[in-house]
Amino acid sequence: MNDLAVPTRQGRPAEGLRGAFADLAGSTRLRGYDVSSADVDVLATVAGRLRAALDACLAGDLHSAAGVLNGVLREHGAVPNLHASPDGLPQLSFHAHSATIVDAWAAESATAVAFLVGTRQTHRLGRCAADACDAYFLDATKNTSRRFCSLACQNRAKSAAYRQKQRSKLS
Questions:
Q1: How far apart are alpha carbons 93 and 96 in whole angstroms?
Q2: Which CATH superfamily is domain 2-170 in?
Q3: Under a CB-based contact definition with an 8 Å cutoff, are residues 128 and 14 in contact?
Q4: Which of 2, 11, 112, 159 has the maximal Cβ count within 10 Å?
Q5: What superkingdom heads the lineage (predicted)?
C-alpha cells in the first residue's frame, strides 16, 4: 500500500506506481509474470480503493471499509487455498493458483485488510504523524502507542520539534 498509493513517504515524494512495479518486475515476488501498462492501471485503481478502505478504518467507518473490501475481494476472485511449487511446502494464499499477478495482488491485499476488520484489529492501523509522510502502518506495540511509520520519520519529526523549540527559546 505504502509503495503504491501514498503521495509522500518519509519526507519525499513517493516513487509512484510505475517505479514500484519496475522494481517488483525483477524480483522473485512476481514469479516471472509480465506486468503490462494496463496491469499497472488496474493495480493503481485497486491501490486507491484499498487506501479508501484504510482511511475508512481509521475514521471508524467499518461498514464503508467492508463494502470497498468486499468489492475488491469479489472482483479479483479471492479464495483461500493451499498451493506450492513442486519442491516447496504448501502455503496458504487467498487467490487461485492460476490467478494473474494482478488478481493475486488485489485478492491478497484486500484479504489482509479484511482480516483486520473482521478480527476487530483496526485500532492497530495508523497513519504516520510526521510531516510530509502519508504512509500507513500496523502498530504491534502492546499499548498501541506507535505514531510513525519508521524510525526515519520519528527521528525527522523529533529533530524538527527540537529545532522549533530552540528557535522559540531564542525569540
A1: 8
A2: Jann2411-like domain (1.10.3300.10)
A3: no
A4: 2
A5: Bacteria
DSSP 68: H
Measure the CA angle with vertex 5, ends 155 and 8; round to 5°: 35
pLDDT digits (tens, 9 = 90+) for 36-92: 778 878 888 898 899 999 999 999 999 999 999 999 999 999 999 998 878 889 989
Nearest to 128 by CA among 119, 137, 117: 137
Note the helical H segments in the chain.
2-5, 16-25, 37-58, 62-75, 101-118, 151-170
Sort 106 into a burial class: Cβ within 10 Å, 0-12 / 13-18 / 19+. Answer: buried
What 156-165 contacts at long range (C-beta under 8 Å, 24+ apart), as own/partner pairs, is 156/10, 156/11, 156/130, 157/129, 157/130, 157/131, 160/131
Non-local CB neighbours of 4 within 8 Å, separated by 6+ positions: 17, 20, 43, 44, 47
